[in-house]
Amino acid sequence: MEKILLIEDNAAICENVAEILELANYQVLTATNGKEGVAMALEHLPDLIVCDIMMPVLDGYGVLHMLHKNKALQKTPFIFLTAKAERTDIRKGMELGADDYITKPFEGTELLSAIESRLKRCAEIKQDTVTGLHGLQVLLSASTGKDQLTLLKENRNTNHYKKKQRIYAAGNRPDHLYYLLQGKVKTYKRNDEGKELIIGLYNEGDFLGYNALLEGGNYQEYAEAMEDTLVAVIPQKDFEQLISSNPEVLGKFIQLLSKEMAEKEQQLIGLAYNSLRKKVAEALLMLDKKYNTAGSKHFTIDISRENLAAVAGVAKESLIRTLGDFRDEQLIALKEGQIAFLSLKKLAALVN
């Protein structure tokens, strides 16, 4: 049951609105002034807040300002409920971060519809991952109430890359966001001797190249197609316009960036301290996690030994020897450049 905080100094209105919300199966908390409302919000962390503007002690604008200083409440949907209907008042509320603005008098269905819509959008925005065109569509609809995905896709160039063809290079300035429509892509770095370390694997439905766009610097890695690949190219200005007008979208890309950095940190720790067998096992499990989207128990992937060695951070000769051991232990099967996973459970046991 969703929890709604109602902040309203008019006793009759407060009672009527609370009754409507309770009949709609919401848990309702009430406060009679802004100061009390802020205290209750901090204590109970409601799922949504409905707040009057003209109140004693602390008005609605002050309530919203104070709540936005608290990290736990910054993204809580906030609806102003007020008799102030001047355009300047509405604009002020929206600039402070209000999600909706309902003027008195109003119908109960109008309020319930606004609350249901905001709770639904908030739930969608809280999804852990945003990958693929569907994920972006959900996010844009959630943050704006409109399907902007069609606009994002219209008249986009699509680039075809052959196997081993470079998409972008370290040191170059970014000018596009890339969306992988088909194929597989790797990102990697090279040391002074030319040895390659793969630091990222991308599948259909993934975005890439957003790191440098968000950081405002040059690419720090190379991106290359691992097989014939089709990529949608979104100009930098369109990406910047999207994230500047949709803070939730920006937050999700930052979330993706943080997750990617954490994974790279874990990879580096493994390269420094893991045994050869554990490094190879972790590389295989990484491939399964990334490309076995159907969750098959006997997943097969076509990947070169050079690429797999670069994922594991080991010499090619050491990799081949270890793969042979895994084959003899019936953890994998090797055939014509392909690797078939026979026992993910046993592979996972090697890294735990």
What does this structure look like?
The chain has 352 residues and is of the alpha/beta class. It has 14 helices and 16 strands. The chain has helices at 11-23, 34-44, 60-67, 87-96, 108-125, 132-144, 149-153, 210-215, 236-245, 247-273, 276-291, 305-312, 316-328, 344-351, and strands at 3-7, 27-31, 48-51, 78-82, 100-103, 157-161, 166-168, 176-182, 185-190, 196-202, 207-208, 222-225, 229-235, 300-302, 332-335, 338-341. The protein has a five-stranded parallel beta sheet, with helices on both faces. Helix 4 (87-96) links the parallel strand 4 (78-82) and strand 5. Helix 5 (108-125) packs antiparallel against helix 6. The longest helix has 27 residues, at 247-273. The radius of gyration is 26 Å and the shape is elongated.
Summarize the structure in short:
The protein has 352 residues and is α/β, with parallel strands linked by helices.
* End-to-end gap: 39 Å
- Rg estimate, integer Å: 26 Å
Mean pLDDT, all residues: 85
Briefly note the structural class of the backbone. alpha/beta
Overall spatial form: elongated
Q: Could you spell the SSE succession in H and E letters?
A: EHEHEHEHEHHHEEEEEEHEEHHHEHHEEH
The oligomeric status of these chains comes to single chain
**How are the strands of the biggest sheet laid out side by side?**
2-1-3-4-5
What is the helix content? 40-55%
What low-confidence regions span 5 or more consecutive residues with pLDDT below 50? 144-150
Strand-residue proportion: 15-25%
**Number of DSSP-assigned strands:** 16
Main beta sheet: strand number and arrangement? 5 strands, parallel
